[in-house]
Write a structure and sequence with these properties.
The chain has 3 helices and 4 strands. It is α+β, with helices and mostly antiparallel strands and 88 residues long. Strand 2 and strand 3 (37-45) form a beta hairpin. The N and C termini lie far apart (38 Å).
Length: 88
């Protein structure tokens, strides 16, 4: 079962190049949507979803999950969990 996620990449500090390398073995398509902004559509096997979440979060504010909503919610949950751990 395959899914496609959409990530918005702000190309600062070579973020686009680093994202493309991180997702090199996935089928993907990038499109420019602004001066330094790109949408990256990544196709992946659903069983790799946890890995995709971790990879996405590793780029910090330069990469934002845009779609699907279920993936965006996974990212939010992971960020909330990390925030809670830092409060202890």
């Amino acid at each position: 079962l395959y899914d496609i996620i959409t990530l918005k990449v702000t190309d600062e500090r070579n973020a686009l190049e680093r994202v493309m390398l991180h997702f090199a073995h996935f089928e993907k398509r990038a499109e420019r949507v602004g001066k330094n902004e790109y949408l990256l559509h990544v196709k992946f096997d659903h069983k790799d979803e946890s890995e995709i979440v971790i990879r996405t979060l590793s780029f910090g504010p330069r990469v934002k999950a845009e779609a699907p909503d279920s993936f965006v919610e996974l990212i939010k949950k992971k960020l909330l969990a990390q925030k809670l751990l830092n409060l202890r």
